[in-house]
Design goal:
A hairpin with a 7-residue loop joins β11 and β12. The strands form 2 sheets. Strands 1, 2, 3, 4, 5, 6, 7, 8, 9 and 10 form a 10-stranded mixed beta sheet that branches. Strands 11-12 form a two-stranded antiparallel sheet. About 20% of the residues lie in helices and about 35% in strands. It is globular. It has 2 domains: about 180 residues, Nucleoside Triphosphate Pyrophosphohydrolase; about 60 residues, Winged helix-like DNA-binding domain superfamily/Winged helix DNA-binding domain (Arc Repressor Mutant, subunit A). It has about 280 residues and is of the alpha+beta class. The N and C termini lie far apart (about 45 Å).
């Protein structure tokens, strides 16, 4: 027992008075934020639709460990801070972004994941359409486009911001057949700090799965959009082409047709829709 003198206590108050908080080894708690966007890259040909791609926001570290490497926005949870409040504070302090959709992803607790000390991190997935952000990013934060090659044994993730380009390779091992959960091992990585390659892969997998049975994708959409734009976002997330009639039949109950139209840009006028629910 972690008390100064072992005995039978008559009340919780008496127990707490004798409790010794130094009896246990200490560890630190952090939170890391995986901020994903599926947004347009402007096409050179005005007659073609802008290409959409998935991207992640990374921050360049200015101190050791991993000085000069890239990482997810993250930091230590304050002793008197609620866990749910930490990612909001950290996202603001490291990137200058606020009012972003967040949901808890996974907890990472490998003993050697941080070379400084024993650190357990609760990661959050954040979603946004980066093209509608009003806040200016801090200089250390940059968006990287994501392309990924994946099979049952490995995943190769390419991250590119137009100037910096690098790959991360992970081995995959099926953990649970009934849920298709995988364990990941980073086997090639020179530029991404900590175990953030695992967080990135876990987050993309979670987003894909939830896109099939929830409305989570609408957190990555502007207020008004065409059905074609919405379908492109789903196709990028799911990494596959969707049949137009089937997609529109499935999505119809979730969207509302508006009186707004998009004109110009070398295309026929398009009706704009909006999400029926609340983001």
């Amino acid at each position: 027992m972690a008390v100064k003198d072992e005995k039978v206590f008559k009340s919780e108050k008496e127990f707490l008075a004798a409790y010794d908080p130094n009896a246990f080894e200490r560890l630190s708690i952090t939170t890391d934020i995986l901020l994903l966007s599926v947004s347009s890259t402007i096409s050179d040909n005005y007659r073609k639709n802008d290409k959409k791609s998935m991207s992640v926001l990374l921050v360049k570290r200015d101190s050791y460990p991993f000085k000069g490497k890239w990482c997810l926005p993250g930091g230590f949870v304050g002793y008197n801070e609620e866990l749910e409040e930490a990612p909001k504070r950290i996202l603001k302090s490291e990137t200058n972004l606020t009012n972003i959709y967040l949901e808890q992803l996974y907890t990472y607790g490998n003993v050697k994941r941080d070379p400084r000390m024993r650190v357990i991190s609760t990661a959050y997935m954040a979603l946004v359409d980066k093209n509608i952000l009003k806040d200016d990013l801090k200089d250390e934060a940059m968006w990287f486009d994501i392309t990924m090659l994946e099979d049952d044994e490995q995943a190769i993730i390419n991250l590119d911001n137009g100037v910096i380009n690098f790959n991360v390779k992970l081995e995959k091992k099926l953990k649970e057949k009934t849920t298709e959960l995988y364990d990941y091992k980073i086997v090639e990585n020179k530029n991404l700090a900590f175990d953030h390659a695992k967080v990135l892969l876990n987050g993309i997998t979670r987003l894909r799965n939830k896109a099939n049975y929830t409305d989570i994708v609408f957190n990555m959409m502007p207020e008004y959009f065409t059905l074609g734009e919405l379908q492109q976002v789903y196709e990028v997330i799911l990494n596959k082409k969707l049949l137009d009639p089937a997609f529109r039949r499935i999505i119809e109950p979730k969207v509302e047709k508006t009186s707004k139209m998009r004109t110009g840009e070398g295309h026929r006028p398009s009706v704009l829709f909006k999400y029926k629910g609340n983001k």
